[in-house]
Specification:
- The structure is a single chain.
- The chain has 186 residues and is mainly α.
- The protein has a domain of 116 residues: Cytochrome Bc1 Complex, Chain D, domain 2 (Orthogonal Bundle).
- Helix content is 48%, strand content 0%.
- It contains eight helices and no strands.
- The protein starts with a helix and ends in a 20-residue tail after the last helix.
- The protein binds heme C.
- Heme C binds next to helix 3, helix 4, helix 5 and helix 6.
- The site of heme C has 24 residues, from helix 3, helix 4, helix 5 and helix 6.
């Protein structure tokens, strides 16, 4: 009994200190998320100065198509982005509750400053304030998942892959993305 308790304690200690390689426990993620949303991310009370209209969202969408689709897909929900779930942390689904729970000001702050450390870059000095606020409008009015298809750049890649599949033996690629539907039967 005693040893079991000690084992339990040390497991708990490791879990709490976060020194482990596996995916974070839900407690850890909750704490990290709270920290991120409440402390790290600024701009909570900043008001979106753009009008909440379809036009604004559309303009935001155009900017999004230039700068963000490469990771977030056209629809902001990672459609057709083969590495989206391979990044650590994974590319966020912008329609998810976690993201939608941010205030407009926080979303603008995220676009401006990025999230460190992660693959989400900051766009300070690259995008105008106005453009970022409009993108926030687009994030609030995202189209249904998958409705805009995959970004062209990945479509071409998928087509090449399709040709390889039909033609000669495909080159061995260790990190086949889940987006490819065929399975290897070795
Ligand atoms: C190089 C890939 C990449 C590009 C380009 C990119 N993002 Fe991200 N984005 C990410 C990753 C990875 C995350 C997840 C970060 C995290 O969970 O800490 C993310 C997360 C986000 C989040 C949610 C943050 C959170 O706390 O969950 C928002 C909002 C966002 N991105 C908006 C944008 C916008 C708008 C653009 C274009 C201006 C953009 N991103 C461009 C990779 C990218």
């Amino acid at each position: 009994m005693k040893t079991r308790f000690i084992v339990f304690l040390s497991v708990a200690a490791v879990a709490i200190s976060g020194c482990k390689v596996s995916a974070p426990s839900s407690l850890e993620s909750t704490v990290a998320k709270e920290l991120k949303q409440k402390v790290m991310i600024g701009g909570r009370d900043d008001r979106n100065p753009t009008f909440d209209t379809a036009e604004t969202a559309h303009e935001g969408q155009e900017h999004f198509m230039h700068h963000c689709q490469i990771c977030h897909g056209y629809d902001g929900q990672n459609t057709g982005v083969p590495f989206a779930d391979k990044m650590s942390p994974a590319v966020a689904d912008l329609k998810s509750k976690d993201v939608q729970d941010y205030t407009d000001g926080q979303l603008k702050w995220i676009i401006e400053n990025g999230i460190q450390p992660s693959g989400m870059p900051g766009w300070k000095g690259i995008l105008e304030d106005d453009e970022m606020w409009k993108m926030v409008r687009y994030i609030r009015h995202l189209p249904p998942k998958g409705s805009l298809g995959a970004p062209d750049i990945f479509k071409e890649e998928a087509e090449e892959h399709e040709q390889m599949k039909q033609g000669e033996k495909p080159a061995a690629k260790p990190d086949e993305s889940k987006a490819h539907t065929h399975t290897h039967k070795h």
